[in-house]
Amino acid sequence: MVFCGADFEVSKTPAAAASIGRVAKKAVNDAARKSKNMRELAKHAQNLMEVSQGLGWHVAVGTDFAVDLRYRKGACVLLSSRGSKMKVLLYRTVPALTPIPMEDHEAMLSAEGAATKGKLKQRITINECDMESEVMDEVVAKAKRLLEHFNEDPDVDSKVALALKHALTFSYGHTWHTIVSTTRELCCIPHIIPKSLADFSIDKYRVVVYRHGGSDVDNKMDFTRLANRLSLLMALVCLVIYGYFVFTATEKDVQCLSGKQSDAVTRLPVGCRLKDVVQANTYASWKGMAMFGTMLFTVIASGLRMYRSSLHTKAKQL
């Protein structure tokens, strides 16, 4: 049985690498051909993506949903069915580097103080959860207040996703991802930090929240990329220093280089003072260290690049 006609196309936004887009399109359409429902589609698509692109792919499938997540640049693909409203989102997460908010989201603060207006019946259904009960109650309470606050807004799903992530980050720290759907037709199969997943429904809305900061291999690749760039930068700095001493050297620096700082004045090179000998030898030492630094940091950068390539291969083989 074919789910949604297997006619998914890659959307223009968010921008994804062309190679990732081609792989994602093939994976989702192949998954749709052997799926009967959204969960099967999500599971098959995730498996196919991780076989070809390595572990760490998250999948969300639904008809109308908004997300607030931190994804790896070029590794977030949205596919839409041409024959239906079904959408599939594939992405990889990364750790957050921004500071934790100093105060709760303004919408949450407004919702906290506002009287309940009874816009929602607030029938709550817990679909999946591995949080501690106290944390789960707090997450559901935040979502209820925000849905009540934004209920009449045409972009309720987007605004609740944004505000809920802000509120959770303020309360519990970084790496939260939020997905909010205006219908209960939503399936999310993420990789999670243990005891951080909550999938629940409030009236017609479906909310999924969880924490994840990227796979270990991804984090190692990020670290090696940063170290590689720093090594190349240091090699360039050393090369600039070497060039400075080469192009600013005078004839006297070359002439006086053969002298020794401990020599008697009578044994100094002709026309050189002790000060000239000291300066010439100092320049020569700095020039030698700069050349050595250039070669050393270049070798380190090359080694880090090869190590990163091996990690990329390992990620695809996991």
Approximately how much beta-strand content do the residues carry?
A: 15-25%
Number-wise, the strands total 10
**What is the CATH class of the largest domain?**
Alpha Beta
What gap, in angstroms, lies between the N and C termini?
30 Å
C-alpha geometry? elongated
Quick check: average pLDDT?
84
Please tally the helical runs, counting DSSP H or I stretches of 4 or more residues.
Answer: 8
**Approximate helicity band:** 40-55%
Question: CATH topology of the largest domain, what is it called?
Answer: Protein Inhibitor Of Neuronal Nitric Oxide Synthase
Order of strands across the widest beta sheet?
A: 1-4-5-2-8
> Mind telling me the C-alpha Rg?
30 Å
CATH architecture of the largest domain: 2-Layer Sandwich
Transmembrane segments: 230-247, 289-307
Pfam family, one: Dynein_light
GO molecular function: dynein intermediate chain binding
Keywords: Membrane, Transmembrane, Transmembrane helix
